[in-house]
Specification:
With 281 residues, the chain is of the alpha/beta class. The protein has one domain: TIM Barrel, CATH 3.20.20.60. 48% of the residues lie in helices and 10% in strands. It is built from twelve helices and eight strands. An eight-stranded parallel beta sheet has the order 1-8-7-6-5-4-3-2, sandwiched between helices.
């Protein structure tokens, strides 16, 4: 039986290959062990975590408000049940220094994680983007931990106020190039919805471009692939949909005078089928 290190390297190599096509890698992001197994059973090629979904499922707001030990414990449970490559969203790194971020990633690599998302984000207490040099330093340091760990560099240029779309796009492109030079393996720009901008970014940056599709106006996989996307993430969208369904089930059951269970009954998986997801694991 291969060691954890050998298996992690194999999974990292496979995860790199999944970005090379021919079809884009679609990540239906998971937030716990059960959702990871459901996604895997549906035919996923890899498992991506959602930082927001993991935080919400543990009783925290999104935005690195979840204690890092809870993040690591949740990731360990996902890695224990998943047979596919796992990539973890670590937001800005769950550390206020490059050294602290490296310690988090070492723990994840030790679990067998094949990739991470790490973002520039906004400076704490502000709505201003962090200087790209911070993320460049972290990417370069993480590259030294594991040469094959897939580092997906996220920039939040679309999440800060900017009245000049052209300037926003140029800043996105500048940051993407800097992160690529620092050692990133992919570029993620959540909020970038223009197919022309996605196509321009894909043509200008020599790395796979990741787009976010966890919202109601997202185009199809084929359309995004035609624009040059090599990776498509649903993020917290699946959990948002699951919570919406739970809300409808609860409202129906609690309806005054004549509560019912039709919605729940129509969506339930058999208990034995769910137990089977974890058999011999």
């Amino acid at each position: 039986m291969p060691s954890i290190h050998t298996r992690q390297q194999q999974q990292a190599e496979l995860f790199h290959r999944l970005h090379a096509g021919p079809a884009p890698l679609v990540l239906v992001n998971a937030w716990d062990a059960a959702s990871a197994r459901i996604v895997e059973r549906a035919g996923a090629k890899a498992i991506g975590t959602t930082s927001a979904g993991m935080a919400w499922s543990m009783g925290h707001a999104d935005g690195e408000r979840m204690p890092v030990d809870e993040l690591l414990a949740g990731c360990a449970r996902i890695c224990r049940v998943a047979s596919l490559p796992v990539t973890v969203d670590i937001e800005r790194g769950f550390g206020d220094s490059t050294q602290a971020v490296c310690e988090v990633v070492r723990s994840l690599v030790g679990m067998g994680v094949a990739g991470i998302n790490i973002e520039d984000g906004t400076l704490p207490g502000t709505r201003r983007l962090a200087p790209p040099e911070i993320l460049c330093e972290r990417i370069a340091a993480l590259r030294k931990i594991d040469a094959r760990l897939f580092i997906n560099a996220r920039t939040d240029t679309c999440f800060v106020a900017n009245d000049d779309p052209a300037a926003r796009y140029e800043d996105t492109l500048r940051r993407a190039r800097l992160y690529a030079f620092a050692g990133a393996d992919g570029i993620f720009v959540p909020g970038m919805a223009s197919l022309d901008e996605i196509a321009g970014l894909a043509a200008a940056v020599p790395l796979p471009v990741n787009v976010y599709a966890g919202h109601s106006k997202a185009p199809s996989v084929d359309v995004l692939a035609g624009a040059g996307a090599r990776r498509i993430s649903l993020g917290c969208g699946p959990l948002q949909a699951a919570l919406g369904l739970l809300g409808r089930i609860a409202a129906e059951a609690l309806e005054s005078g004549h509560g019912g269970f039709r919605t729940m009954a129509g969506e339930m998986l058999p208990a034995g089928e769910i137990n089977g997801l974890f058999a011999a694991r």
